[in-house]
Amino acid sequence: MTTESAPAPHSTRATTARRPAPSLHAPRRAAAGRPPVRSHRLSARRDRPTALVVADATAAVVTLALAPAVLWPTADLPAVSVVPLVTFQGVLHAWRGLYRHRLSPSALAELPTLLGLAMLPWYALTATFAAQDPHYGVVLAAPALAAGGQALLACAGRAAVHHARRRAAARRPRSALVVGHGPVAQQVTAALYEHPEYGMRPVGQVDPDRLGGPVQATLPVLVRPEDVSRAVIQNAVGHAVFTRPPGTGPESAALLGLFARHDCRVWLVDGTPADRATHRGSPGKDHLWGFPVRPLDTARRPFALAGKRAMDVCLAAIALVAAAPVLAVCALAVRLSDGPGIIFRQERIGLDGRPFVLLKFRTISPVDEHESATRWSVACDRRMSVTGSLLRRTSLDELPQLWNVLRGDMSLVGPRPERPYFVAKFSHVHPGYQARHRMPVGITGLAQIHGLRGDTSIEERARFDNHYIDTWSLWQDVCILARTAASVLRLGGS
Question: Which regions span the lipid bilayer (predicted)?
């Protein structure tokens, strides 16, 4: 099942893709000793926001070089102002999602947003310099003109980047799997064949629920998880297009986990009339040949994840320094109350199912390794000392995990990590539990601020964790941290 074995149709109507079914076998490059994963990674470079960042920064620098002749003809603009202007502009653009990968980007559609975001730093820059030197005072319309010029330059640069990306995507499309069945799946498949500028070449159709019935021979229909896994690896699949929202069953969770492990971009095509109605009227939304589409892999945005990691490192480092006296007091209390062994180490499962060693202050008497890995801990454990109970109630036993955050094992905010034994057990019993590992695990999370901690419903925790992942943003992390701090002050630990 390779991209070469499924030629594009010549019909101009994207209704049904009628192609001979390709077979499942490794691409030619793999036979020559060159793994397909490498080409997958090389083609993924065009999805990075570097070119857009350069276009926006160039527009800001050029405007800053030309605007002083109009705004401040009697004063020299300090060259150091370039750095804060470009940095502030980049942060605003990332916040508004201007660096997210889109299937149908439009520079003209981005122009109003670019103009609005350019005005804020220009007025801030003008007000700052005017407060220091009256020579920088200008009429209120002047910064707006500078912002307009910068927005036009950025729009032109972005248009060039979008055009270059579309041409590169058409020349080297990445393999894609269409997940679903029925007319919408057929129409999406045909649209991807007819329009290679989306950068996808369908190589298979996934029907995990076996609901498609008799299928016309257009693409190989993959039902078993091992067939999907083999297809993803052999064809270096880079995209998965869901034609209906993923279910809450273990099959959908396993699919999402599989695509996440192989760095596939996951898209949801809203093909029902209800979905189209909710999508209509929302400016800047993405589409795939008329079908509203949105990414499902919100946790895989490299630029946003870099911001999350930077926030984690800064806040964890500050918290460790500020909490050093508290850490010392807690360590001394554990040593005096429970004896040697202040730090409790335990294997937990993190991002993409990778194990790591979690650190906590010890709150109960030592147990053997098997019991530690398989016994469910509750707040009323009789072996818990007074010190351990106090640490649990105040959540101070979690403070050593700040070191896990600095090491990159965890994030400040994310689904709580669990032991391998319980991950395997809960993944089998509770639908959607495995999908929690699409995101870095955290010290606190959306489930915890809603009281789901300790001996509470695992199914409800998984529901909140997956909702957090699907709606994730940096601002949501800030809100969760604020609510966590408030709950700690109320002694709301587990």
Answer: 51-71, 77-95, 107-124, 136-161, 310-334
CA dist 21 and 10 (Å) reads 17
What pLDDT, on a 0 to 100 scale, did the predictor assign at position 82?
Answer: 77
Place of tokens 């990691």: 309
Residues 308 and 448 in one domain: yes
d(CA 473, CA 478): 9
Q: Are strands 265-269 and 239-242 parallel, antiparallel or unpaired?
A: parallel
Count of structural domains within the chain: 3
Burial class (CB in 10 A: 0-12, 13-18, 19+), 98: buried
Question: Is residue 41 a part of any domain in this protein?
Answer: no
* Burial per residue of 6-40, b for 16 or more beta-carbon CB atoms within 10 angstroms, e otherwise: bebbeeeebeebebebbebebbeebeeeeebeebb
Instruction: State whether residue 135 is helix, strand or coil.
Output: helix
- Residue pair 416/445 in contact by the 8 Å Cβ criterion: yes
**Cα torsion 34, 40, 45, 46: sign:** positive
| 89: Cα within 13 Å, side-chain hemisphere | 32
Q: What separation in angstroms does the CA of 474 have from each of 91, 383, 416, 435? A: 12, 39, 18, 20
Residue 211 CA neighbour count, 13 Å, CB half: 9
Q: What are phi and psi of 359, to 5 degrees?
A: -110, 135
**This prediction's pTM:** 0.64
Given a cut of 50, whether residue 344 has pLDDT beyond it is yes
**What percentage of residues in the chain have a pLDDT greater than 90?**
31
Domain extent for 255? 3-34+173-296
418: DSSP letter? B
What tens digit of pLDDT does each residue of 45-87 get? 556 788 999 999 999 989 888 876 666 555 555 555 778 888 8
Neighbours of 442 (CB within 10 A): 27
